[in-house]
């Protein structure tokens, strides 16, 4: 079985790393935060003292980092992954970063005799811990075939979306749709309630009619109809406003570069940005319901 390095043991990475160790891989774990490394060791990984130490003797490097600048620094910075890994090592970045940053990383890796895949995920911390993430992978077939068994230890679904950057394209397009559909769902529940229709009755009808969508049936922003949804715990995340805003900004920047018209994506971005600005960055993104109801 291949030897792995895992770098970036935060909210998402810690559960993912534990599932790889549980799945039988030998995993060298590194994070700037020593406590996160200790937690990874208790989950079955081996502690690495640095990026260089983690990657020098492995076949696959998995990263789960905050943003594109961290990804480029970890892979291509001084004493980073590329400077220390064996030729042919597979780079598997699961972070959400800009499409252009992922394509640039793939080019740099290829020029240095490595294979880079962008493999961002759908699903939050619970899915990372439970091994039920959905991976959207961009990069060459050869890399995808090598990555698949590794990803499957952390996944419910693994999709090959095409060439370099296409995993990030799938992720940001999906999350732009999610951001828009959540606001629409909040508006519909609020309208129904204001006109005298209670949330459960509206849910029973609309969830089997043409308004049905994931934001309604799996993550209902009105408390009651979907017991596991954050709306039933005062909108504790879940998936925070700050994370939705990050993904919308990536989507809108890429849309502008590609000349793609996104009027509703743009408006959704403004709505989440205002919530963030008003101190609600840590609220679940379905908490936009509170704004629509005029409660915040
Ligand atoms: P996080 O901030 O909890 O974790 C990031 C980790 O990276 C931290 O432990 C940090 O110390 C480490 N790190 C940063 N720079 C480093 C470096 N140079 N070397 C080693 N370690 C370094 O973030 P998260 O919530 O785990 O999210 C990670 C990625 O997953 C992001 O790109 C995010 O957009 C994406 N994502 C998150 C969620 C979610 O629900 N949290 C869902 C889907 C996708």
Automatic annotation (TrEMBL):
<feature type="active site">
    <location>
        <position position="171"/>
    </location>
</feature>
<dbReference type="GO" id="GO:0051287">
    <property type="term" value="F:NAD binding"/>
</dbReference>
<dbReference type="Pfam" id="PF03446">
    <property type="entry name" value="NAD_binding_2"/>
</dbReference>
<dbReference type="InterPro" id="IPR029154">
    <property type="entry name" value="HIBADH-like_NADP-bd"/>
</dbReference>
<comment type="pathway">
    <text>Amino-acid degradation.</text>
</comment>
<feature type="domain" description="6-phosphogluconate dehydrogenase NADP-binding">
    <location>
        <begin position="3"/>
        <end position="162"/>
    </location>
</feature>
<dbReference type="GO" id="GO:0050661">
    <property type="term" value="F:NADP binding"/>
</dbReference>
<dbReference type="InterPro" id="IPR013328">
    <property type="entry name" value="6PGD_dom2"/>
</dbReference>
<feature type="domain" description="3-hydroxyisobutyrate dehydrogenase-like NAD-binding">
    <location>
        <begin position="165"/>
        <end position="290"/>
    </location>
</feature>
<keyword id="KW-0520">NAD</keyword>
<dbReference type="InterPro" id="IPR008927">
    <property type="entry name" value="6-PGluconate_DH-like_C_sf"/>
</dbReference>
<dbReference type="GO" id="GO:0009083">
    <property type="term" value="P:branched-chain amino acid catabolic process"/>
</dbReference>
<dbReference type="InterPro" id="IPR015815">
    <property type="entry name" value="HIBADH-related"/>
</dbReference>
<keyword id="KW-0560">Oxidoreductase</keyword>
<dbReference type="InterPro" id="IPR036291">
    <property type="entry name" value="NAD(P)-bd_dom_sf"/>
</dbReference>
<dbReference type="InterPro" id="IPR011548">
    <property type="entry name" value="HIBADH"/>
</dbReference>
<dbReference type="GO" id="GO:0008442">
    <property type="term" value="F:3-hydroxyisobutyrate dehydrogenase activity"/>
</dbReference>
<dbReference type="Pfam" id="PF14833">
    <property type="entry name" value="NAD_binding_11"/>
</dbReference>
<protein>
    <submittedName>
        <fullName>3-hydroxyisobutyrate dehydrogenase</fullName>
        <ecNumber>1.1.1.31</ecNumber>
    </submittedName>
</protein>
<dbReference type="InterPro" id="IPR006115">
    <property type="entry name" value="6PGDH_NADP-bd"/>
</dbReference>
<keyword id="KW-0101">Branched-chain amino acid catabolism</keyword>
<comment type="similarity">
    <text>Belongs to the HIBADH-related family.</text>
</comment>
